[in-house]
User: What shape does this take?
Amino acid sequence: MQKTQEYILKNKDRFLDELFELLRIPSISADPKHKDDLLKTAEWLKLKMESAGVDFARIDPTAGYPIVYAEKMIDPKLPTILVYGHYDVQPADPLELWDSPAFEPVIKKTKIHPEGAIFARGACDDKGQMFSHLKAFEAMVACDELPCNVKFMIEGEEEVGSENLGIYVKENKEKLKADVILISDTGIIANDIPSLTVGLRGLSYMEVHVTGPNRDLHSGLYGGAVANPINILCQMIASLTDENNHITIPGFYDKVLELSKEDRAEMAKAPFSQEAFNKSIAIPKESGEKGFTTPERTSIRPTLDVNGIWGGYTGDGAKTVLPSQAHAKISMRLVPHQNSVEISKLFENHFKSIAPDTVSVKVVPMHGGEGTVVPTNFPAYIAATKALEKSFGKKPIPVRSGGSIPIVALFEEVLGLKSILMGFGLDSDAIHSPNENFGLFNFYKGIESIPYFYDEFQKIKK
Amino acid sequence: MQKTQEYILKNKDRFLDELFELLRIPSISADPKHKDDLLKTAEWLKLKMESAGVDFARIDPTAGYPIVYAEKMIDPKLPTILVYGHYDVQPADPLELWDSPAFEPVIKKTKIHPEGAIFARGACDDKGQMFSHLKAFEAMVACDELPCNVKFMIEGEEEVGSENLGIYVKENKEKLKADVILISDTGIIANDIPSLTVGLRGLSYMEVHVTGPNRDLHSGLYGGAVANPINILCQMIASLTDENNHITIPGFYDKVLELSKEDRAEMAKAPFSQEAFNKSIAIPKESGEKGFTTPERTSIRPTLDVNGIWGGYTGDGAKTVLPSQAHAKISMRLVPHQNSVEISKLFENHFKSIAPDTVSVKVVPMHGGEGTVVPTNFPAYIAATKALEKSFGKKPIPVRSGGSIPIVALFEEVLGLKSILMGFGLDSDAIHSPNENFGLFNFYKGIESIPYFYDEFQKIKK
Assistant: This one.
């Protein structure tokens, strides 16, 4: 991969310019206003794949946003890598908290990234990481060093639940045949501590609506005699966890995979500083399920978080209203063996059962997906380990992440394929938050590492 | 008052046209964007007072919105009535719930108002009611039947706490000397059940802010290990009331005036149907402090309501954010002997004391005011009773209202004057809500009743 690595070095400025182009398109899948931006992004990717040297690239329609599919089959006897990524991004709000506009990428130096980081929505999640694969591929093709067949499947609905990708995968099993799936949508522990993600949490995302009176009431004339939907919603949410931060939904923990003492001891070896963690997000004190450490709470334990809440008067000043409705978005991160459909149902039944008879409650399951565990002893994982060892000069540590890429479990179920979660982001990248960023180091380290993986995977599969 | 009543009948269409003009100005005091509209409204009122025949009218500046003051002194030996009202209105949102635009008044027939009602923000609260006084005054002057001296004091900050009116009253004690204060900013039980308000609740309005991490976090990467400010806020709010809907703030009930069995039995005589109440606002069941009836809960008992709540992602779709902050507006209605400053302080101390050490909490008192009780045996009250008996053909029932007109307690404290709360609205007028309306019957009944009060008051004071 000597020539490939030289090609990458020579073209690094152009690669960055191209990524900036991609980041300028506000492809927010959650917001229907951005429909055209998503279609534009898909078109842009198709052209880039074509110029990178695929056999063909095409935009496959779905009931939602299209999937960009491309492949280069050099030899049926060689192993095939299926690269998955997504071109959609999270909403950028609250906009006022961005130091520079979310869709006008800029390079800024930071404490963590003295060499500079790309600030933009999607810089890390997942445009920057996904685009690294296109550029690594381009380099290998240009230098005639591509050692495997490649298939690209880049979707536009990851941030809203990948519903149509699931259907697409089921309908295209034959076309998607491969030896392994390669995904860069996760992170490493630090720029000098490479790691590979070997676990992901599942997700169950709900929206709840509490309705009291049929209109907003004057809180003086009615207050005290009519159940206030906001007070009720707060009481219901408060009751979902107990004083030990255990989730109180009956049956919620029934299928949770409890780790052995040995496994937990192994996990505890990964470097982690509670002080640095607290300082990095400026919290006075950590918090979570009793009996577990922060790394455990964010990986092997399920959670329940309110992601958004709204109701009544939220403008300036003081409006004395007893509102008709209150609303919340509540999501649960799930661990292996918990099933998202089952958990959504448990939540729905429980939430309705705790509603007092003074209000009406509606529960809408939004989206969900299953957690996953990647074995550390199969060929692709070993190849990934060797690849990162080459690019970082250090053996990567296997870590479980608290995030969710629901489609990974589905890939295994439908295609029978394991995924390698070889991401290059950092926890500090502020994905899903204002000022999302992606280190230049990390962007280029990804492009550098990917060809090594191809190379090692081909060797190990021989 | 024969000629006066005939004049009113002859001019009723013009009176309505003029009120429409007034309702078209969006004088929302809570929203700084409407500053010019408030000034315009004050100017409009001054002109109307002048043409109605006052000795002089002027716009008295304050640190906030001005007070429109006018007087007509016909004879220092005659009693003087000080009319108070307000020209500002509540915000109109949620705008999408209005069937017709909030500031484009229209007449629509309703079940309760088969003769038609005026639909507009401020139609009842308080432009319609306040304007009735100007028109009644105009009629008495035009017919040479004015039996008392009159002072008008119309403010523009009632919906945001009347802070500057308090200062104004203290600075103008001499100018405001009168025998009684007359206010139409309350209601009657029904169009065939006249009533006079003899109690108002006080108010303590707070804004609370809970801050966790210094930025919005990814709920997968951090969820489970960081206190979520929305979950925490919900827990804190939930703990403010117990299972009997008692408020748990220590000391909250200490000064509450507990009514005697006899007083409660007297109250229970006022006509009230729980079924009709529930049906009118489409609630499945009433709710409130254990041991009290709905009329008691809305009048003689203090309350705590969340008026608004917001935090995290509230747009369409599913954003998996663990938010940095959560916010709520919480207000308490107070009963006689509870002091709003004291209660605000109790709330603040308690709310901070229940905050876990994983977040920081800020409490901002917004505005407050004291409750009041009107005696039913003093001359002005007797005059009001006679006036309504004349116009409605029935003796009015004394009722305590759950609403607050904080300035009433201040009038008594500073000016030593009792207020007559002779309002003509109905509970169904949806004041502070979408589709606020004011029956044509009620608008005209007010204009008809006011001259009778002047007449009776003058006679009784002789």
Summary: Chain B has 13 helices and 18 strands. Chain B touches chain A through 101 residues (CB under 8 Å). Residues 150 and 227 of chain B are 60 Å apart (CA to CA). Chain B has two domains: 2-200+371-461, 202-244+302-367.
